[in-house]
Write a structure and sequence with these properties.
It contains 13 helices and 8 strands. By secondary structure, the protein is of the alpha/beta class. The chain has 2 domains: about 5-85 and about 295-305; about 100-285, Rossmann fold (3-Layer(aba) Sandwich). It has an 8-stranded mixed sheet with strand order 3-2-4-1-5-6-7-8, with helices on both faces. The relative contact order is 0.18. Bound molecules: guanosine-5'-triphosphate (GTP) and magnesium ion. Guanosine-5'-triphosphate binds next to helix 6.
Amino acid sequence: MVTWIDALARTRRQIAGALSRVFSGRAKEDVPFEELEETLLRADVPVSLATRLVAQIEEAYKGLRVSRRDMLRKILRDSLARGAPTGPFAWPSQPRPVVVLVVGVNGSGKTTTSAKLAHHALRAGLKPLLGATDTFRAAGADQLKWWADKLGVESVAGAPHADAAAVAYDALDAAVARKADVLIVDTAGRMHTRQPLMKELQKVRTALNKRIPGAPHETWIVLDATLGQNALAQARVFHESVALTGAIVAKLDGSSKAGFVFGIAQELGIPVLFAGLGESAESLASFDPDEFVDALMGAEQQVTL
Ligand SMILES: Nc1nc2c(ncn2[C@@H]2O[C@H](COP(=O)(O)OP(=O)(O)OP(=O)(O)O)[C@@H](O)[C@H]2O)c(=O)[nH]1
Ligand SMILES: [Mg+2]
């Protein structure tokens, strides 16, 4: 199991040097504030947050040296707090089934994440069902089916080029008939700039809502962390079309731009619920702002070395 410390190693390496100089400087004149700002931006921390951080650290330089690290940690931590759930994600006890629509661009990690969510539900003692509405590519359904078999979970998939909305409807029908607690609906991810995808997602939502009013109860976007800020721009487009209720950051383990996570809550106002820290079914971690910030800043000795 990959840990937060491992997963954030690449981003941490980017900012460690600058942080170390900021924490160890004796006088304000010794501190490379500009370098700090540049480094934060390179790690895809949003501009507004980086600017505020540097200004506050400059201000705090008048105070005790020991407080700088805590102050930085607090600012970063607070900026993640907006709309964030308190504590690890727990599946709601109502309604049954809970319907989760998983969306995102090509290759962002939707299918893998859908499988990880099914595994998470299984571990919580629930019965998940996976719906494969990616009928655009034959391999899309096969990949989800492979995961379903591996996890011992039931799945419903459509024939290649079948209507995605009809498959979603059938999957929810099956989830009700088989008394599933959670239905996870994986979707196709062609380019977000192409209108057909947004139209298709809207049709999928309408079909789910037709079968159970109120469904889907959650619409989660899977963002590829290696894309950094670019993933945020994509999320905005989805948010306008399908009203996202949460974000999952996939591939955090391969990213050196994890600072973009700060922008999700700030700019989209949706909570980050999970992070993918690896490729296995177990590698989905409930998003923990404290662990995230601590892993980003590193332990004291790691940064000041
Ligand atoms: N290291 C790592 N790899 C991941 C993670 N999540 C997904 N991947 C990998 O990313 C690649 C793409 O994942 P998919 O789940 O197929 O992405 P998708 O969004 O379903 O792709 P399309 O259906 O083609 O749009 C696969 O090789 C996954 O194993 C993660 O958290 N960490
Ligand atoms: Mg897929």
